[in-house]
Amino acid sequence: MYSEEIPQDQWRNFLDDFSHRHVGQPVTLELLDDDLGDQPEAVELPLVGVSLDPKDSAGEIVEIIVGGEPSADVNHIVRRASRVRIAKTDQGDDQALEIEARDEPTVLLRFGSSPYPNEDHGPIGTA
């Protein structure tokens, strides 16, 4: 596995392309926090999309939507994003998307099996 940092001036095109290639694929959305530990926000829900907020002239607001159904949508906003990285398998397949932000937990959007086997596969707090 290896990772690649995406230059900020390429975020919009990269995220649009990433979303187009992976729409509908199951992902796990985690918040990585040194104080609280890893917190799942959505587990194995279909990706709807990842994009920059078009109204944000600084290009630092990233919106992540998973679920695709009103009762199961998770919409996570990353404000003040500072880094975007893509992790790839040795074969070159996308494995995870990491978005770091100033003063917020890092967001990890992962493909593959969930490390949270007892989760209900929906947003935290839903049954």
Fold and architecture overview:
This protein has about 130 residues and is mostly beta strands. The protein contains one helix and eight strands; from the N terminus they run E-H-E-E-E-E-E-E-E. It has a single domain, classed as Roll (PH-domain like), CATH 2.30.29. About 25% of the residues are buried. The chain has an eight-stranded antiparallel beta sheet with strand order 1-6-7-8-2-3-4-5. Strand 2 and strand 3 (about 35-50) form a beta hairpin.
Quick recap:
The chain is mainly beta. It contains one helix and eight strands. The protein has one domain: PH-domain like.
Secondary structure elements and pairings:
Elements lengths: L1 E5 L4 H12 L3 E8 L3 E16 L9 E5 L7 E5 L2 E8 L5 E8 L4 E6 L16
Summed over residues and divided by their number, the pLDDT gives a mean of 87
Distance between the termini: 34 Å
> Mind describing the biggest β-sheet?
8 strands, antiparallel
Structural class determined from secondary elements: mainly beta
User: Largest sheet, order of strands side by side?
Assistant: 1-6-7-8-2-3-4-5
Classified by CATH, the class is Mainly Beta
Report the CATH architecture.
Answer: Roll
Order of helices and strands: EHEEEEEEE
Oligomer classification: single chain
Number of helices: 1
Spans of at least 5 consecutive residues whose pLDDT stays below 50 are: 120-127
Q: And the CATH topology?
A: PH-domain like
Task: Kindly provide the radius of gyration, computed on alpha-carbon positions and rounded to a whole number of angstroms.
Answer: 14 Å
Global shape: globular
- Count of separate structural domains: 1
The percent range for helix content is: under 10%
How much of the sequence is in beta strands?
over 45%
Report the strand count.
8
